[in-house]
Here is the input.
Amino acid sequence: ETEAHRTAAAARRSAHFQLPDSVKIVNVTTEAEVELAFAKLRSAEVVGFDTESMRSGRVILLQIATPVEIFLIDLVPLKHCDRLGEDMLGLLMDSRVTTLSFAGFGDFSGLARIPGFSALKNISSVSKLASWVDLQDLFATFRAKQLGVSKKKAVQGLGLATLAEEVLGQPVDKEMQASDWLRRPLTSAQAQYAALDAWVLIKIY
Here is the structure.
């Protein structure tokens, strides 16, 4: 890595919202780690939810964040883990925990197609869950009323990077979005990106 590369990378970081060093990233690859993760998630008042997928649409990584910790749940070794689907269903049905997403209906339907998440098919529509808040939908509704336009028009151009810049003063960096999510181990940049995408929802909310 040259000095020029390091300088460019530093400039890119300074131009985008970054995950605070105090927030812990936890990799979850076993059923025992799933149990520990969801015990912590169920004790939170609010969590951020996101997924990373292949271009084919196959969901590879599930990220769920609390204000102090982000769990990167690896769906390569855990794709047949029924406990994971049951724990996710329990979290979504828990009215004490607000689950945040951004355009999360696609994330949810992608998860429901994974064998271990068959329990999620018991939910007819995630949008009907009282504890589910989709920030894109929420801000599009607000923007539509503010501008006097249709919700369909208000949602145009309303991406997570745009919303973060509007609310937090800096966009989130989407450079890693199309990276190879099957790579193991994930690079530090991939882990930071995936973790921030879930955690920043709490910060915006």
Observations:
- The helical segments are 3-15, 31-41, 82-93, 104-112, 135-147, 151-154, 160-168, 188-204.
- The mean pLDDT is 92.
- The chain is about 45% helix and 15% strand.
